[in-house]
Write a structure and sequence with these properties.
With 306 residues, this protein is an alpha+beta fold. Helices cover 35% and strands 28% of the residues. The strands form two sheets. Strands 5-12-6-11-10-9-8-7 form an eight-stranded mixed β-sheet, with helices on both faces. A four-stranded antiparallel β-sheet has the order 1-2-3-4. The chain is elongated, with a radius of gyration of 21 Å. The protein starts with 6 loop residues before the first strand and ends with a helix.
C-alpha cells in the first residue's frame, strides 16, 4: 500500500513564516495572495496545511459561524490553493484532509492546482483571469491591442490628460471615497487600505493616476509586483475619467512604462462580460482558475449553504 503523505494542519501561531515564504518564493505558480504578510492583512485569520518540511503549502482562511469552523474565500485574494504546483494525487490528499477537518469549504485555487479529478466530493466551477506578458517592446504590445481599444485611446489622447506614476495614497483613497462603484463595508475599506499601504511601504506597490488639464485626478489604479507578476489590484474613476476614457490611458501608460520587462501583467480578470472585454482589448489572454466548494454540513445547514 502506498504511504500517505504527511500533511499537517497548522494553526497560524505555529506557522514558520520563513519556511512558508521561502516555499512560496520558489514556487513557479507563486501568487502574492499567499504571501504571509498579505494573508495577515487580507484575512480575519488564516491557518495552513503543510506537507513535509514546507514542501507543499496551502493557506486556509478560517472563520466560525453557528459554532462551526469553515474555510472561506477572502476579498482581495483571487487565487489561493496549493504551492508549488501539485500533482492530482497530492491535490486529492490535501482536499481529503480539508474534508476531515472542516464541514464546509469555499475557496478559489490557482491555475496550477488540478481540482477537477480529485475524487473528493467537490463542486468545481471555472473562473477566468486575464494576463499579458510585457516581454516585448511597446510597439509590439500596442499591435496586440484590439481595434476598439486603439480607437478609444486615440480619442482619449485628445482630452489633454496627463499620466502620472507614483501618486499619494491619500489622494487615491479620497478619489475612491468620492466615487464608490459598489457599497463597501468599513471592513472591506480597511482591508484595501492595509494592503495598499503595506505594498507601498515594501516598495512593491505603486499608484498611477490620470489628471485633467485643470489638475483634477480623474482616474487611478494600484499595481503591486510579486516575483515576475504585477497585479492590477484596484482602480477608480470619477465621471470625468469615465467620460474621457482615462482608465484606458492609465493601463496603456503602465504598459508603455514597463514594456520590454520580463513581467506578467495580471488584470485580475472578471466574470463580468464588459470588464472582460475591456481587459482583453489590451491583448491579454484568459487563464482559468477554479472556485471549489465542499459541503459536508449537517442538514438543514447543507441546504442553506447550497
Amino acid at each position: 500500500m502506498k504511504e500517505q503523505p504527511n500533511i499537517r494542519y497548522i494553526k497560524n501561531t505555529d506557522i514558520d513564516y520563513n519556511k512558508w515564504d521561502n516555499c512560496l518564493n520558489n514556487s513557479p505558480n507563486q501568487h502574492i495572495y499567499a504571501a504571509s504578510w498579505y494573508l495577515d492583512r487580507a484575512t480575519d485569520n488564516w491557518d495552513a496545511l503543510v506537507m513535509g518540511d514546507y514542501d507543499f503549502i496551502m493557506p486556509l482562511p478560517v472563520r466560525k459561524k453557528w459554532g462551526i469552523s469553515y474555510v472561506y474565500q477572502p476579498d482581495y485574494c483571487q487565487q489561493l490553493g496549493i504551492f508549488p504546483a501539485p500533482s492530482e494525487e497530492i491535490t486529492r490528499h490535501f482536499f481529503q484532509k480539508i474534508s476531515q477537518l472542516f464541514k464546509y469549504c469555499d475557496t478559489q485555487v490557482n491555475t496550477k492546482t488540478p481540482v477537477e479529478n480529485t475524487s473528493v466530493h467537490l463542486k468545481v466551477s471555472p473562473r477566468t483571469n486575464y494576463i499579458l506578458s510585457l516581454n516585448m517592446n511597446y510597439a509590439g504590445l500596442f499591435s496586440g491591442y484590439s481595434p476598439d481599444t486603439r480607437k478609444n485611446l486615440k480619442k482619449a489622447h485628445k482630452k489633454n490628460l496627463s499620466f502620472v506614476a507614483g501618486i499619494q495614497l491619500d489622494d487615491y483613497l479620497q478619489l475612491k471615497a468620492e466615487n464608490p462603484w459598489r457599497e463597501i463595508t468599513e471592513e472591506d475599506w480597511n482591508t484595501a487600505k492595509r494592503l495598499i499601504a503595506f505594498g507601498l511601504y515594501k516598495g512593491i506597490g505603486r499608484i498611477y493616476g490620470i489628471y485633467t488639464a485643470a489638475n483634477e485626478l480623474c482616474a487611478a489604479g494600484y499595481f503591486c509586483q510579486y516575483g515576475n507578476r504585477v497585479t492590477f489590484h484596484d482602480s477608480v474613476s470619477n465621471k470625468t475619467g469615465k467620460k474621457s476614457g482615462a482608465m484606458r490611458l492609465l493601463i496603456d501608460g503602465f504598459i508603455r512604462e514597463n514594456a520590454g520587462k520580463k513581467t506578467m501583467l495580471d488584470f485580475e480578470g472578471s466574470t463580468v462580460p464588459g470588464i472582460a472585454h475591456f481587459f482583453s482589448g489590451f491583448g491579454s489572454y484568459p487563464e482559468t482558475y477554479f472556485r471549489v466548494k465542499y459541503n459536508g454540513l449537517p442538514l438543514p445547514l447543507r441546504w442553506i449553504k447550497s
